[in-house]
Design goal:
Length: about 350
Amino acid sequence: MLNPSNTLRHNKELARIFRQMADCYRYLGPEQRFRAIAYNNASNTLSNMDEPVDAYGHDVKKLDQLKAVGESIATKILEYLDTGTIKAFEELKQKVPFELLELMDIGGIGPATLHQLHDTLKVNSRKEIIDAIEQGKLHEVKGFGKKKIENLLKVLKINKDEKRRQSLHTAKKIGDELLAEVKNMPAVIRASLAGSIRRNKETIGDIDIVVTAERRNWKKIINQIIKLPQVNTVLASGETKASVILKAANMQADIRIVHDDEYGAAMLYFTGSREHNIMLRTVAKKRGWKINEYGVFDVKTNKRLAGETEEGIYRLFGLPFILPEKRLGKDELKNIIIT
């Protein structure tokens, strides 16, 4: 008998893969426009299904009857259910600077501009583009004026002006007010402050909020957030995230939406610190896992091992729950790194 709590996970994973495939095709250019639309539509269909895709068994014809799922995509669904991967997706990732595609959500940076960045600066990852910015190389790229570079700096959270940092008390007050607005949105399941506020740092550069909701409501929630009266400027707006500058103290707020059963992984990832997360990724890699804002996964099978709660993730690593203010990237993971 199918266990919905487990098999609905396949719907979400497939929806994410197809959304990423759509982004890859968007990057590859206008001639791939219809493929991008097809995979994005299939992603939406899977996200909005109330029954597990596994219930269709291995019947391609039944899958083909789903809205926006043709025979080609149905075959890929079955391939994923059988193997945990989709060969076409793995090949597609090799054709594009996959780690950079998230930047297509940033205002003023579409597929063509991202292509230009990649071709001009030979950057393939978030770290490489950060290095390029810090070295002043973006000024060499046509169309990258001061304003666009400033927006990119803000979204990537680098080179923050220390003068704009606020005390924990002030930042938490601003964050709590924004959080209250988000929690009042009907489609929101949970919402919490993360980032340096949650770690109780003395001064705060920006506000991080993690939101959970059903996939069908993500875009609606993002649109509501960017129209809140507290928002002064929208830096980036996509289906899963938004970065805005608030009127209060000119602070930046970054909001990320995930599925409710990904809440623990998202809170851990977006709480940080960056050094703590790097240490966890190092340990995960040694064990044949990968960890991100969606959970901890076995690299070979892509099976999710943890992610619903932070406690569950730390337990998987053989650790007790680590308080946010203790996540410094120093000695808190020393024991499991040695073993």
